[in-house]
Design goal:
Structural class: alpha+beta
CATH topology: Arc Repressor Mutant, subunit A
Number of helices: 8
Largest sheet: 3 strands, antiparallel
CATH superfamily: Winged helix-like DNA-binding domain superfamily/Winged helix DNA-binding domain
Shape: elongated
Radius of gyration: 17 Å
Helix content: 55-70%
Strand order of the largest sheet: 1-3-2
CATH architecture: Orthogonal Bundle
Strand content: 5-15%
Number of domains: 1
Distance between the termini: 31 Å
Length: 131
Amino acid sequence: MARNSALRRDDARGRPLGAVQGRHPETEALELDRLIHERVRLGIVSSLAVNGSLPFTDLRDLLGITDGNLSAHARKLEEAGYVVCTKSRDGRATKTEYALTATGRRELEAYLAHMEAIIEATRTSEGEPKS
């Protein structure tokens, strides 16, 4: 995913290429990082960006999702290198903690910049006839 987002951005300004080239917001939206764009995964990376790290149960409760749903989405983020999962023992119980990696933070920032460019392009094009 990091490779694709690097291709989407103008190196000089960090803005998505489509925004730089004046493409339509609909086209821009198709180029969003799909890994982060999914609602639950966006919730996970956003929560971790704000909180630093969170235990599994706190993250699950914050997002209002099931254990299985959190596990599946967190695993995808972990496989991509966006999130790190640390397990430890607390007596007989296993404690699972999630944190955002440097790659995850960078990709979230790129995603947010891309969304901001889409919003700006949409606001700028308001009132113009659709092609």
